[in-house]
# Entry
Amino acid sequence: MANRALPRPRFEAPEPERGAKATLKLETTTAPLLQGKVSEIPDALFGGAMRFCGLAVVALLGLIVYQLILGSELSWHAFGWKFFGQTDWNPVEDQYGALPFIYGTVVSSLLSLVIAVPLAVGVAVFITEMCPVRLRGALSFTTELLAAIPSVVYGLWAIFVLVPVLRAYVQPFLAKTLGWTTLFSGPPYGVGMLAAGVILAIMIIPIISSITREVLTVVPQHQREAVLALGATRWEMIRLGVLRNARAGIVGAVILGLGRALGETMAVTMVIGNRPEIAKSLFAPGYTMASVLANEFSEATGNLYLSALIEIGLALFLVTIVVNALARIMVWSVTRGQPTRGVV
Amino acid sequence: MDEATVKSTMTVTMPPISWRRRALDHAMTGVAMLTVALVLLPLFAIFAYLVYKGLGSINWAFLTQTPKPVGEAGGGMANAIIGSGLILAIASLMGVPLGIGAGIFLSEYGRNRYGDAVRFVSDVLNGVPSIVIGIVAYGLVVIRQKHFSALAGGVALAIMMVPTIARTTEQMLLLVPQAIREAAYGLGVSRWRTTLSITLRTATSGVITGVMLAFARVAGETAPLLFTAFGNQFWNLNPNQPTSALSLQIYTYALSPFDDWHRQAWAGSFVLIVLIVGAVAAVRFAVRRGTLAGT
# Structure
């Protein structure tokens, strides 16, 4: 569908014959159009302005990259690649290593995926394949409501409801049953990596499930019918006919959720404990790249300190961009041709 | 499509489904239902707590007073509510026209490689963590002004609004049938006039929904305001001064050791959500009435 304007009609009437009535008549009816000569200038101006807006979006991204690179130069020259491999973060001695934050971001995001993916895919499957049509709209609306709650409100809820519940019930239980894995050992503070993973999971479920739903609805109906016709039960139909076809798209949805989890700041900062340590236990407090920015950026004294923080921002930016691009390509490979709804 | 009939004919022609497969089928249905319950549980818990703790904590002082000194009970978030409004107004003033312009570019001028590039970039921008946008606004505005300001917060939120608005505007404009544009061109209407008065006007309600979506998304943002708007204990309407925002105030109060501040954090969250939902609903209502009156 070409959206270009049609060429502007040019009224090149033939030289009217003298005394011919028909041409005279034509002339009078088309006269207003011919007189109101359309100027090309406003059109060019408007087109230019809109192109400028489009360019501005690209410029914004350029600006972000420029600012981050400019800001992190100092730290880059001081530490180089070692910055990402060192574990000590000591503003007093101007020693900065980002590894604990990278570790915290990766572990909390992966933990959230482990919790969120089965739930989100289950909800998507239920809504598209199992639930009565009448319930469908209400259910998808309700799950998407979760996406409308601001991050800081999630954090507030996590501090006062989730963390106490984890401390009193979930963590003792996990320690007793799975303590031998050393993943769930140590004192149950409540606050820590586990709390961050759980609240992140709650936050990314709507994204994963709404995109999974979109991907599942794109699976052609006759795939389902074919599997059913072979004598499959509904679950076999879902497994063979639907999920298998939508695999790439679901993986894309999961990676998109990962992208969101990596960059999530407030809720995580409020419950992860904010201690730059690499601990094996999920009960221990941690720190993420986004949280260290939230906590220390406005108080950073000294240029190198600020620069190190900006470098963490740059790293976070690059990682999320790669993750998002990857996810988009995977979702696109499934929903190709179909308009993807909404904002992801 | 009609599963029941398919199944009933199958049982006639095929051997019955073994109990094992049948049991697995039922079990998986149960598992799916369980996931729905597990997802809805936190949702209801969050809303229940918001209403229970939030509604009970709102009083006249909360809505009309500024925060009391540390440790003193009472006071409110009136300045933060106004501050949020100020920051959001600045953000909308910058972000909405630019976003809609970019959307028009994508749908009317961007059906080519350049458009694809802009489209990809705006999707990428959409995924940039909000805290990183905060760093950028810090470098752009705060460093130059040498102090925190509502303007810097507004710039950060505007950057976040643009890609969302651009993509939804594009999608809404693409829904307008090509024939309507051609009809306008056929009448000799110029291209810019067609875009503004015909295409954009036809898609108004969709475009506004997109704008409200972006607005709702940034209205609760905290991370990019931490080191741009920074927060303020007092009234401030000057865009060049540090300004409080509802979300910032909730964050500070939630992490404080005082019960009364916790209470106010819940109240603030409730007000924030009511304001977001209210703004979105009001604009949608106005648009619906407006378009009805127009036709």
In short: Residues 220 and 242 of chain A are 9 Å apart (CA to CA).
